[in-house]
Amino acid sequence: MRYLTIAFLALATPAMAAEDGYEPGYGLVSLFNTDWVVLIGFLVFLGIVFYFGVPAMLGGMLDKRAAGIKAELDEARALREEAQTLLASYERKAREVEEQSQRIVAEAKANAEDAAEQAKGEIARSIARRLAAAEDQIASAEQKANRAVRDQAASVAVAAAAEVIAKGTKAADQNKMIDDAIAEVERQLH
To answer: Cα–Cα–Cα angle for 6, 7, 8, nearest 5°?
Structure first.
């Protein structure tokens, strides 16, 4: 700093001072010269600034700010990569869920079709059972009706025969016919 002042003083000559409008008696280095006072104040200010390390502090603050910005950018990149990873994961899961739902729907349709086929088979078997039961009931009713008709016919025939026999046969012949009928019944039962 001293060298800067000496160099400036060496360059400043009285001829320069006269040209700039300075009084010839004061010179360039006089405290009455405002330019000189401003120069000294500026140099003192610069000395104080450098003495207290303001440029280093400013550089440190700028470096710290730059490091903070770099850290924020790195964090933003990391967050972006994490978000992209999460997005890809969610998209993959969404595709898997969609595929699974399609499989579930297909299985449900197949199960419904199988259940419908089973129900049709059950209905057909139920109808067949009911039809067979109805046919059995009809056959049983026919047998009962046939038996009733035969029984009635037999009763009518027996009554008619009894009447005919009673009118045209004698008591001894009637007793013999009864004995023959009893013997015939015993033979058919055994």
So the answer is: 90
